Amino acid sequence: MADLVHVSGLRVVVRNDGGEEVAIVADVGFSIPQGEVLALIGESGSGKTTIALALMGYTRSGCRISGGTIRVGDVDILSLDATQLCGIRGDKITYIAQSAAAAFNPAITIMNQVIEPALLHGLMTRAAAEEKAVALFRSLSLPDPDNIGRRYPHQVSGGQLQRLMAAMALITDPALVIFDEPTTALDVTTQIDVLRAFKKVIKERGATAVYVSHDLAVVAQMADRIVVLNHGEIRECGVTGQILDAPADAYTQTLMAAAVPRLRQSLPAALAEAPAPLLAVEGLMAGYGGTPVLDDINLAIKRGSTLGVIGESGSGKSTLARVIAGLIAPARGRVLFNGEPLAGSLTERTREQLRRIQIVFQNADTALNPSLSIARILARPLAFYRGLRGDACTRRITELLDLVRLPADIATRLPGELSGGQKQRINLARALAAEPDLILCDEVTSALDTVVGAAILDLLAELRQELKVSYMFISHDISTVRAVCDEIVVLYSGRKVESGSRQALMAPPFHPYTDLLISSVPELRCGWLEQVGAARPLPVMGAAGAAVDTPALCSFVARCPARIDGVCNAIAAPRHTLADGREILCHHPANELLEREARVRQEATG
Amino acid sequence: MRWLDNFVGRLALSGRIGLALVAFWLLLAIFGPLLAPYEVGAVVAEDVFAPLSLAFPLGSDYLGRDMLSRVLSGTRFTAGLAFAAALSASSLGTSLALFATVSGRWIDEVVSRAMDTLISIPSKIFALVMVAAFGASVPLLLFTTALIYLPGAYRIARALAVNLNTMEYVQVARVRGEGRIYIACVEILPNMIHPILADFGLRFMFVVLLLSGMSFLGLGVQPPDADLGSLVRENISGLGEGAPAVVMPALAIAMLTIGVNLLIDSLPRAGGRNAGEP
Fold this sequence. Notes:
The structure holds 2 protein chains of 2 kinds. By secondary structure, chain A is of the alpha/beta class. Chain A folds into 3 domains: 3-259, 3-Layer(aba) Sandwich (Rossmann fold); 269-496, P-loop containing nucleotide triphosphate hydrolases (Rossmann fold); 512-605, no CATH class. Chain A is built from 23 helices and 22 strands. In chain A, the strands form 4 sheets. In chain A, strands 16-17-18-13-19-20-22-21 form an 8-stranded mixed sheet, sandwiched between helices. Chain A has a 6-stranded mixed sheet with strand order 6-7-8-3-9-10, with helices on both faces. In chain A, helix 7 (158-170) runs parallel beside helix 8 and helix 17 packs across helix 18 (420-433). In chain A, 43% of the residues are buried. Chain B has helices spanning 2-10, 13-35, 67-102, 104-119, 123-134, 138-165, 168-176, 180-216, 228-234, 244-265, 267-271, 273-276. In chain B, helix 3 (67-102) packs parallel to helix 6. In chain B, 75% of the residues lie in helices and 0% in strands. By secondary structure, chain B is mainly α. The relative contact order of chain B is 0.16. Chain B has one domain: Orthogonal Bundle (MetI-like fold), CATH 1.10.3720. The A-B interface holds A 325-327, 346, 349, 351, 354, 357-359, 361, 363, 366-372, 380-381, 384-385, 416, 430, 434 and B 167-169, 171-178, 186-187, 190-191, 274.
């Protein structure tokens, strides 16, 4: 069959501050046969989005397509003028952006936005477009397809909005659909539903698509072919199975290695025996303006160990870090550090207490003051806690930079001049400057590329060996948490649903929520998405427990595949301890959970 | 001088024209009276409302004084007074905004509502009342105009500071145990200085217009001194004959304000480079 898309010798340049043109995409060529999905994969800055946008004849401001040909169908994209391009975009070629929330206009109903491309290009009448939109909503497995179009974007969830954007892109029956990291911003449990919907709709409509992502495991589910990019050049191009099983290029091998988190060294035995925990949280309840975000949280961090806190967005994991750091005062319960209670507010804590707990935020872009040099950022905690000035301070800054494996000459630069990974290292170095006992790491690798993130995890593990520092490691990614943490706590909407050691959390039985989290993480092999099967219907719940939002009841009941009518919606779940020392908040005893999970896995693979 | 090259290089053409105009008027305000060919108050021409000539490049006024010398002296009053008033309004407004932002809810509430009260008084009427009560003098004009433009500067600075206050680097500083002054001056202020400067330019322009309006009504700078606004008023009788004496000071006001306007319009793009980029 003839290729639908053919790209050759594509070159995109950007004008730098000095006025010279630098190539960010050089000599890229590939072709996509009709009805296939091609994935562009690479780290940030590899040019994958630039190439995807170039397929529509579009470049971001400051960039320019300086060479090559792009043919879609029988149209030579680069020979078209602005008006002709407008006629093609949104009709023959459509685009699905990473952040659906930012791509929808909050003041217009969803239906009017979804059918807009069809009306704009004069393809069908309003009634026909609406009918088609409803059919698309149905194939994308959206709830209440007949009426969802009447809602406004803020009235649906993030995963639904992403699927609605796919409906908008497909309404014109485009020749080519471009997916630009459509699930990167979603929780894993949502991502799996969105991927399923995308896959189904692509198959049904025989759409040809370009799928841009940095996540190999996601791409393995979606793509027929993969193009691996690095620094704007193609490193490898091949069928999905070949890239995954037998990557030829060294860079692809690095990507593959980073995608499977390696276990980091666990707690030294001598330290594990220490009697008193470094930090203990007892019966903690906290929230914003009266609404509790955390409820009845108990946990302990041993000296020199790493505690992982995992949960999806809105589970309260960042709030937990903020309470421990003193940014939010707890409503009830207490935080003990070295056996002494910590005051709730910052002003009541001593400078020594503040020094010993440091927090490292997720986004290094907003965590470093953009107008201060690296040296000034690192010098402040040194001067503030330890009174270091002048030469001693400069020496210590060099040591700190060395500790986070950065060259000393970086000290004179501003944060804006560093890469994401470098910024995150500075972020860490600033916390280390205080010589803390405990570092609260809030999603420190989430905003980074896999390879860079893996390097940061290695660094954390090394620092733990060198400095005997403890971590509280907060993440939404269960595989990362299992790779670096000694103890793990699973949070769901502010409650601790499961906790235990890393070894114990490697094998079932799990709490139903933990099980959902683990089974939703895409695996790095073809066909995983089909194997995990379609989302099973949840057990029917009677109206008996009308008060589902009663605080004492299990908070996961609305989504739980193992819920029991008349029990889960009527009685608060008990917290019980399993044989391997894990705590689980669930009505089901361990053996029932084990049986159920084994059955589900068998159904999926068989 | 490299930063200047950089700065000029990043401005759009309109911004460069604005910069040239502003620099021109600033130089005139500083050195103008030295360049003046005649004594400001001296009656030197034989004719009133004389046309442009070599001896009197901008003509003569209603008493036969040299218009060039009078415009040069008036520029110093207009630009100097406006600069001082805008500077006081912006710096005081920014300081109050930083103070309100880092000091918790109650202080923020009290200061913000006080500023709302001030902003609700119509500016011209407030200025007229002040002049009526205390008489027109340069210090009073300075104080009044600074007070009138203070709440606007405060609101802009507070909106910026409140946004920055939620940034993670400010939270890190707070967790470190830093005091309010450090957070305000080191963590917040440097990151909002560019929009504040643009706002300062805007305020400078408003003050020029307000002062000129006051002087035109005869309530601004009092004779024998004259700012550009009073120059227009005292020569208004020459309007019928199209005398340059009334056109020239009006043109000076226009060029000064348009210059500042052009400059600050292109400022955010020059200053906000690291703010807008993903």
